[in-house]
Amino acid sequence: MTTFLTARKTLLNSAAIGFALVVGLLAGCGGNTAGNTVVAGAESSKTYRWKLITTWPKNLPGLGTAPEELADRIRAMSNGRLDIKVYGAGELVGAFEIFDAVSQGTAEMGHGAAYYWRGKLPVAAMFATVPFGMNTTEMTGWLHEGGGLELWRELYEPFNLYPFPGGNTGVQMAGWFNKEINSLADLQGLKMRIPGLGGEVLQRAGGVPVALPGGDVFTSLQTGVIDATEWVGPYNDLALGLHTVAKYYYYPGWHEPGPSLETLVNKEAWASLPPDLQAIVEAACLTMDTLVPAEFTARNAAALQTMLDEHGVELRRLPDDVLDRLQELSVEVVDEMAGDDPLSQRVVASYRDFAERAKTYSKISEQAYINARD
Ligand code: CA
Prior knowledge:
There is one protein chain. This protein is of the alpha/beta class. The protein has 14 helices and eleven strands. It has two domains: 2-34 and 47-168 and 259-297, D-Maltodextrin-Binding Protein, domain 2 (3-Layer(aba) Sandwich); 175-257 and 312-373, D-Maltodextrin-Binding Protein, domain 2. The chain has helices at 2-29, 42-45, 65-77, 98-104, 136-145, 148-156, 196-204, 214-222, 234-240, 267-272, 275-310, 320-338, 342-364, 366-373; strands at 48-54, 82-87, 109-112, 161-168, 175-177, 191-193, 208-210, 228-229, 248-251, 260-266, 314-317. The strands form two sheets. A six-stranded mixed beta sheet has the order 7-6-8-5-9-11. Helix 12 runs antiparallel to helix 13.
């Protein structure tokens, strides 16, 4: 991780110099346009000191380091004018309190995942991931170019929040179990840590979903508070040590096929920034939305090999009939989520419309290629 971050920071410093040159050139070109001129003065010399709170254990590789790197990039690109201090889960507020804390201005920014707010705002989960829904590439297409992000901002607007996609883990693993899952009967009464819509689906299949932040997963599985857990994938799961408290590692991650993380900004704090700092935050968020999935792609394969070669982890695939039933239940869950609320209906319709078209194309592009390669 250190080497990787150091390499990135070297690149970042070059990027910061390039950015400063571009800003300088733009300032030179636009100087005589009334209303658009940024005059050197109070606003451009002011330093903003912000707090960023997260749902992740401090510096957990991947999830926890992503907001740290986001803050580093914003600090470098702004020449220190936007100085953000990052807090891990529990340092300032609890893991599941960041939505409210950023909404209320306790911190200016947050980093988490939208499905954690399902109790307050059920349809928010669709901006994280939908069981048997879009993969990472498709989700990124919907959010950035398919109208998804506009709907996300509309949904969070009454909560005084301005969200950005905050990276994506790629398709996750189905999770860690101490008994084999050979049929639907094996899910009956199974107490499993699984968030979001996946948890709702598991419940309908007879299981007992439990909501736990990442920092509590290991101990809960070790002490038998839960029977099984999902977390992310080999890179993050190895970091939490889950292979030491469960025997079987199941795939595929039907419940989280391409989960987007989220970066939250308090709306007043956002509005208080001058346009160049807003542009820097936006650019840094976009950068992280590219680098986080790259990091997971690079690290998951290596971590899986370590689990198999050094820790004797037993890989298992969920049986087809189990996956088929979970998929049927997933459709029901999303159907019901649209409910009577017009905005929720629009979110569900937009997601499903995009997903359907993306699936048709993916079949003859990525899926066909992967099948051909194998
Ligand atoms: Ca997960």
